Amino acid sequence: MTGSDLDRRQILAGAAAAGLATGIDGLAPAGAGTSAPAGAALGAPEPFTFDLLATRAEKNAGTPWQPIPVVNADILDRIDYDAYQEIRFRPDKSLMMDSRRELPVQLFHLGRFTRDVVKIHVINGAQSREVVYSSSLFDIPAGHPARELPDGVGFAGFRVMAPDLKTDWLAFLGASYFRSSGPYNQYGLSARGLAIDTGAATPEEFPRFTEFWLESETAKSNVFVVYAYLDGPSVTGAYRITATRSVDTHGVARIDQEIDARLFARRDIHRLGVAPFSSMFWYGETSRRQIVDWRPEIHDSDGLAMWTGSGERIWRPLNNPPRVMGNAFLDNNIRGFGLLQRDRDFVHYLDDSVFYERRASVWVEPLDPFGEGEVQLLEIPTDDEIHDNIATFWCPKEVFAAGTSRRYRYRLRWLDDIPFPSSLGKATATWTGIGGRPGHKRPEGVRKFVVDFQGQVFRGIGRDDGVEIVVTPSRGILSNDYCHPVVDQRERWRALFDLQATGDEPVDIRMYLRRGDRALTETWVFQYFPEA
């Protein structure tokens, strides 16, 4: 650390705080072993606890929202996509969040598409210190516009790396978005801290995390804790996100996040989105008429799974609809929901560059009851894989009134597949095609649906053992509905039915298999567009 570096940091801290910013040499060792990058500047120590953060959020909710202005906009505009890719965080500058150096953190640079500044702090005991931006934290080519940014300008976000610094498994970047690379080290869908008016007639609001405080748990080097301050026109919030990453003997990872969100409403919020996700579904086995690319399927998620308060398991395959569609699934104290990638077969995608079969599934488990409300599913038409066109979240029944507060505690699990009861078969594939029977004249306006269910529940059950299909369409004429065990396939049954319907209004379909009074499968629900 040179004298000029110290002088520059003192200037950035402001005349009133001259001399308070120090480098790593001035950081007292923490019990968790947290350390800043070698030579990085740290701001003055400040008291920090989660309760203090919540108190700040509550106080600020009583004042008008003040948007944070974009700084150095002319420079950031010149850091376009290509220029941004030339910037690399220096591995030797990683923040080591634990004494065993198994939780390295790297920071995201600002740019044209990452313009919103966030502050990053490291926690030591009951104090925190801001990490001050310096271009020395990054490898930046000579003559690059990023070199014109002043020290102290801030960061765009951060990511948590694997110990070898070659891959990352958790990233926070943009608004209140965050995501994990999940079980197979492949990013896909994104989570958000909060959604407001998603899919409503009014414009969607994007409250954002403006500050982060980072720490690790002393006794566990695989536990990473993020505190975040949320701010927006309608709401403020304090978040504590505890992330635990574990890897099994087969190299499959699992990331669990426990989220404690304390929210304070600035004004009435009619559509509050708790535990929201966004994902991409272009086409899959259910929508072969939409295939225009050489790959058989392209999607980050293929269905919405729900476990209702009454105990029913529901599977809703995703659509790329002809128009924007919103679906609501009413419930009371839902037990879980999430967007899943159930199809893990490479040959169903054939993409050896982005590996859709490796995309994470995410499952929400309320730690405190969510009460009355609904799971909202928003599906938006898309003609490419670059757009997130799927959103889902929990929407409470009651309006979040201005001046009131709420607390939501839930767990996010980024995993291969959700725990599923052996007493039920789950839907593993859905196809549609022309209706009728092969070898006969095909009836016009009739669509055939074929759904495969798999599970131990079918063990020892044969074709003549009383299994029947139960299909309930919201409209149309049902025919040729039956089910049977798939030949030469263990514990796999197939359900088939034809549906005749016209018009451009969707048909909502519910279907499951039963034996006597007992349901053998989860409930498959689908939205069919006859004219699509």
Distance between the termini: 65 Å
Detail the poorly predicted runs.
1-33
In the CATH classification, which architecture of one domain applies?
Answer: Sandwich
Structural class: mainly beta
Quantity of strands, as a count: 36
- The CATH first-level class of one domain comes to Mainly Beta
Strand content: 35-45%
Count of discrete alpha- or pi-helical segments spanning 4 or more residues: 4
Shape: elongated
CATH topology name of one domain: Immunoglobulin-like
> Mean pLDDT score, rounded?
90
Helix-residue proportion: under 10%
Query: Largest beta sheet, briefly?
Result: 17 strands, mixed
Name the assembly state. single chain
Q: Compute the gyration radius: what is it?
A: 26 Å
Under CATH, the homologous superfamily of one domain reads Immunoglobulins
Strand and helix map with partners:
Elements: H1 3-13, E1 41-42, E2 46-47, H2 50-61, H3 73-77, H4 81-85, E3 88-89, E4 95-96, E5 104-108, E6 119-124, E7 127-132, E8 138-139, E9 157-161, E10 168-173, E11 177-180, E12 190-192, E13 195-196, E14 208-216, E15 223-231, E16 235-247, E17 253-265, E18 272-279, E19 281-283, E20 298-299, E21 303-307, E22 313-317, E23 325-332, E24 336-340, E25 361-366, E26 372-379, E27 390-396, E28 405-415, E29 426-434, E30 446-454, E31 467-473, E32 477-485, E33 492-500, E34 507-515, E35 518-519, E36 523-528
Please characterize this protein's 3D structure.
- By secondary structure, this protein is mainly β.
- The chain has a domain at 426-528: Immunoglobulin-like (Sandwich), CATH 2.60.40.
- 6% of the residues lie in helices and 41% in strands.
- It has a 17-stranded mixed sheet that branches.
